[in-house]
Design brief:
5 strands, alpha+beta, single chain, 261 residues, 13% strand
């Protein structure tokens, strides 16, 4: 909401390390250096041609260095001006670029990232959670959207204990049914073993069969009417996290470059 403030350092963008005051000093020093070289005093008794040779032998490299420094500093000021102008013209641009970086980073992280449970009959997602290593994953809305799409498109095709997967640009969504009108899904990176994902889902399905989902959701709805929202009405996040801890690999959470996700 606020434009970047430029004191001696400039924001968090590409010019974050550009020190304005230091640049001014460098520019002034470069100008003084070149000026001094052009005004070196003559040595008494030397012929004018000899004096010129001395000045020529001393001046070129230093003068070129001074000019080069001046050009670099002046270019830095020009880049700074362009950057500030872009920020004022399109203040959301930097945020958009940061978001794109975050999304790419999240896509490339490996492991089992997200779990969801839902009811086929009313397409209600009653559990949607990221596992601890991936708690700040910015792609979570896309994971949930994929689960909702499956509820509408695959309701009649998911049998108890069946093994299905949906591969999309965010990873691989593995899903099954507990046989009681509920779908369970887990999202993982493409390198994560399929069998491990379905072993996880099988254990969660066994847990869910021992829970009265209908009653718990009705209670949550009553609390919602009274202004209280229950994040995990069926109580699946804790058991899911405990099971996930058993299957978590040492490399999970790291970034796989060139993964092709």
């Amino acid at each position: 909401d606020s434009a970047p403030v430029c004191g001696t350092k400039c924001g968090d963008g590409p010019l974050a390390n550009f020190d304005v005051n230091s640049a001014r000093v460098d520019l002034q020093e470069a100008i003084r250096t070149e000026s001094n070289l052009n005004q070196q005093p003559a040595v008494a008794g030397e012929h004018v041609a000899v004096q010129g040779q001395h000045q020529f032998s001393q001046a070129p490299n230093a003068a070129r260095d001074a000019r080069a420094t001046a050009r670099v500093v002046q270019d830095s000021f020009a880049n700074l001006e362009d950057n500030l102008h872009a920020c004022f013209e399109n203040p959301g641009l930097a945020d958009k670029e940061d978001m794109e970086v975050d999304e790419d980073y999240c896509r490339r992280r490996v492991g089992m990232k997200y779990f969801a449970a839902a009811r086929f009959s009313d397409k209600r997602v009653f559990c949607s959670t990221l596992f601890p290593l991936f708690a700040k994953d910015v792609l979570e809305p896309m994971y949930r959207e994929a689960v909702v799409d499956l509820l509408h498109e695959a309701a009649g095709a998911v049998a108890q204990g069946s093994k299905h997967k949906l591969t999309f640009d965010c990873g691989v969504l593995h899903f099954t049914s507990d046989g009681n009108n509920h779908m369970l899904a887990v999202l993982a990176s493409p390198d994560f073993p399929i069998e491990t994902c379905h072993t996880f889902l099988s254990e969660m399905a066994n847990y869910l069969r021992r829970v009265n989902v209908k009653e718990l959701l009705s209670t949550a709805d009553e609390q919602l009417v009274n202004g209280t929202r229950v994040r995990d009405p069926v109580g699946l996040i804790d058991p899911a996290t405990l099971i996930w801890q058993r299957f978590k690999r040492s490399q999970d959470g790291s970034v796989a470059f060139g993964s092709g996700i």
